[in-house]
Amino acid sequence: MEAQAAATTPRGKRTRDAIVNAAAELMYVDGVAGTSLDKVLAASGAGKSQMYHYFKNKDQLVEAVIDRYLEQILGNQPAIFELTSWADFETWTEQLLDVHRKASGPIACPLGNLAGEVGDNPKLAPLVDRAYRTWESHLVRGLETLRDKGELAPDADPARLAQAAMTSVQGGLLLAHLRHDITALEDALRIALTHLRSHRS
Fold first, then answer.
1. Transmembrane stretches, by residue range (predicted)?
2. Which residues, in sequence order, are bridge partners of residue 200?
3. DSSP 3-state of 124
4. What's the rounded Cα separation, in Å, for the pair 30 and 40?
């Protein structure tokens, strides 16, 4: 995929951010297929020439939206950046739950929405997977830290454990949103932590 143009001035950054934010909101509700570039332009207030300055095609815009979703997701769970103890993993799960305990929750995971829609798209599916792998990478790093400290079994595989935890998170998010019941996510996170702890040293 061709590189996206970077915003080099404060005004340019505001314009690009407005386009990406508008696209992210529309795609969250209407999906990629249901979000036309004309809708994004109308919602963002940007002109067509500005749109095509930053994004050569819709796939590039979707890529930027995926990055924005990941930024928002990780911003809601800051503990994931500093996982140096088992207590930190507890804090991480509580931060995840706090997002979905609000009056509007449980909410759908924006990456999960995209995965369901573009999972068979050879151009876009790898971009969603890359975002998931970035999310997982913070769990991997935390588990490696625990292993280095002697708090995780030497033969434990941090990458596999992180993948299993992510699988629980995504399944819990899906059912919690679908059923409007946070217990699915609570149980999924409890299962994930129990599995991780079963590999304690």
1. none
2. 152
3. coil
4. 12
